[in-house]
């Protein structure tokens, strides 16, 4: 009986993947009239994807989210607030370096640009922007600033830079922003922000604790566009 909750959670993960898999397989077989090249590998891959996603979600719930929340709640013992901002930048920067989606994007960009945009340069550029966005998000929480007062200036900067950033950096910036919102960054950064907001007097964690993922994405966009302008210069 103890294993029933785990089996139930595993089944919930499976039914979230089954529809997409079924649609793609149906398109391949019935619409495009193409066979599945290796049915055995397809079935094994599907099983591994279900198990992998289930284990990742379970592990995140047990480790990253509680750890991020605990760190955020204990930030208040640091008297010098600028240290909190530095720590936030380091966490955002380091977490971005291991995002699998960003690595895949950077390698694709390097290949299509024939090495003109090295993948490590793009990854570190995005990581710097993400760390800056994380810093701005934590500063917003510490000062209890309205979200709109932080968001609007950043969006104006994005619009302004889009006029000067050479192609394809404008398009890459948008993709890089989405690539940073992956399985490593979201659990850590969101839990960190909510944890910090929940222990600051006069700050509503529901209002101030969320939105930091969006700010980090905008920070990544800005850094990629600036990188494009610097390469042009």
Automatic annotation (TrEMBL):
<protein>
    <submittedName>
        <fullName>DUF1538 domain-containing protein</fullName>
    </submittedName>
</protein>
<dbReference type="InterPro" id="IPR011435">
    <property type="entry name" value="UmpAB"/>
</dbReference>
<keyword id="KW-1133">Transmembrane helix</keyword>
<dbReference type="Pfam" id="PF07556">
    <property type="entry name" value="DUF1538"/>
</dbReference>
<keyword id="KW-0472">Membrane</keyword>
<feature type="transmembrane region" description="Helical">
    <location>
        <begin position="42"/>
        <end position="61"/>
    </location>
</feature>
<keyword id="KW-0812">Transmembrane</keyword>
<feature type="transmembrane region" description="Helical">
    <location>
        <begin position="122"/>
        <end position="143"/>
    </location>
</feature>
<feature type="transmembrane region" description="Helical">
    <location>
        <begin position="210"/>
        <end position="230"/>
    </location>
</feature>
<feature type="transmembrane region" description="Helical">
    <location>
        <begin position="9"/>
        <end position="30"/>
    </location>
</feature>
<feature type="transmembrane region" description="Helical">
    <location>
        <begin position="82"/>
        <end position="102"/>
    </location>
</feature>
<feature type="transmembrane region" description="Helical">
    <location>
        <begin position="150"/>
        <end position="174"/>
    </location>
</feature>
């Amino acid at each position: 009986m103890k294993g029933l909750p785990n089996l139930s959670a595993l089944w919930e993960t499976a039914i979230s993947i089954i529809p997409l898999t079924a649609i793609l397989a149906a398109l391949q077989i019935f619409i495009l009239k193409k066979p599945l090249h290796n049915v055995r590998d397809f079935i094994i891959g599907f099983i591994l994807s279900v198990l992998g996603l289930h284990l990742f979600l379970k592990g995140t719930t047990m480790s990253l989210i509680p750890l991020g929340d605990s760190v955020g709640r204990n930030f208040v013992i640091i008297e010098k607030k600028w240290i909190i901002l530095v720590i936030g930048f380091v966490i955002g920067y380091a977490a971005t370096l291991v995002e699998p989606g960003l690595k895949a994007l950077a390698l694709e960009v390097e290949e299509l640009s024939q090495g003109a945009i090295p993948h490590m340069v793009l990854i570190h550029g995005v990581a710097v922007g993400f760390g800056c966005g994380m810093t701005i998000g934590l500063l917003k929480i510490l000062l209890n600033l309205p979200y709109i007062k932080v968001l609007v200036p950043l969006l104006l900067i994005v619009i302004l830079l889009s006029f000067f950033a050479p192609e394809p950096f404008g398009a890459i910036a948008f993709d890089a922003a989405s690539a940073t919102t992956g399985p490593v960054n979201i659990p850590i950064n969101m839990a960190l922000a909510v944890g910090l907001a929940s222990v600051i007097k006069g700050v509503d964690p529901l209002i101030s604790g969320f939105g930091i993922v969006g700010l980090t994405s905008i920070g990544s966009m800005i850094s990629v566009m600036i990188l494009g302008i610097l390469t042009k210069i």
